Amino acid sequence: MTEEQKVIIDPWGNALVHDYARLIKEFGMQSFDNNIFPEPNLQMRRGVNFGMQDGEQIANAIKSKKPFYCLTGIMPSSEKIHLGTETVIQNVRYFQEHGAKTYVLIADVESQATRGVSLEEGKKRALEFHIPAYIALGLDINKTNFYLQSENKKVSNLAAICSQKITENEFRAIYGSVHPAKVMAAFTQMGDILFPQLSERMPGVIPVGIDQAPHIRMVRDVSRRLKTEYGFFLPSAVYNKYTPALNGSFKMSKSDSELIKLEIPEKDLKIVEKKINKALTGGRATREEQHAKGGEIEKCMVYEYCKDHFIKDDKVLAKMYEECVTGKNLCGECKAKYAFTYAKQFYEEFNKNFEKAKKNIGKIKFVE
Ligand code: TRP
Ligand code: SF4
Fold this sequence. Notes:
8-stranded mixed β-sheet; 50% helix; Rossmann fold; binds tryptophan
């Protein structure tokens, strides 16, 4: 394979991914198989999860009720989170509800190193928004262990141990560079991923966006190399596809203004309608054509957002689909009937849960 053909994913940059099948092959992942997991959740069933690494080990732990953990981390690179992060948290919630010991970390060291967000600011964002938002999205406040990377000494110790096991060339081959900030962040992340195994060796699943695949590859290599000394289980992962921007671009950027953020105060909910109104749809050139041929739903970002985030009820989603492809609805009618209605419900519910979570902030559990 030539260099141009190789898919390079830069976890800190903007990457374009069109060909998930190729990605799965090149990263040695498996296609996501929701048949192996009991009661798959909405995102798992609707194709948000498209890839996995060693999912069997987790499915087996669930089925045989053996201990396992689920861990993910999110950078406090902006004050709010966007809907891509919501799908990661929904994965964490699924594994939590199926018995995982749950860890969610605030990647403040990473955002200091790679984005220049001070640790102080990172912590402030975490407490004011990120952590209550994760609770509002359905994580169990009594069962989720939170920490900030900068406050977890065991994580930095593990990072140091991992750093012995990788050569400069290997690092460069996986990440495309050996930029000091990336080195700092990558080893810290390996420390995160292995951290729960310090107290108990057990399988673990790391739900992440596909941009994080290089970290998973690296930490699995390192765990293998640390096997005799430490006996870590190789971490598993489930991958989410990119959340496309509403204009249809698959450019991944956490600060993209085309993405819809969480939360949006009640009084500003019109913004969501405005954004949806500007979104790329699969509408045809004329109303006659659309009535005759139906919409091109596979291109439609309005449908994509309803499917992945806003419409929880399968029957409602099926109706939206049906009414699009048979040409019953024009896009304007469809947006009013489905997208606006269910987006509004989604945000109202989030806002309500967020207020509640903020009140309960004292009950949140932090790793010692
Ligand atoms: N690198 C992740 C991001 O860009 C954050 C992160 C840090 C993480 N440590 C992690 C994700 C451990 C999964 C597991 O948001
Ligand atoms: Fe999208 Fe709805 Fe238009 Fe179909 S009718 S293309 S689902 S906006």
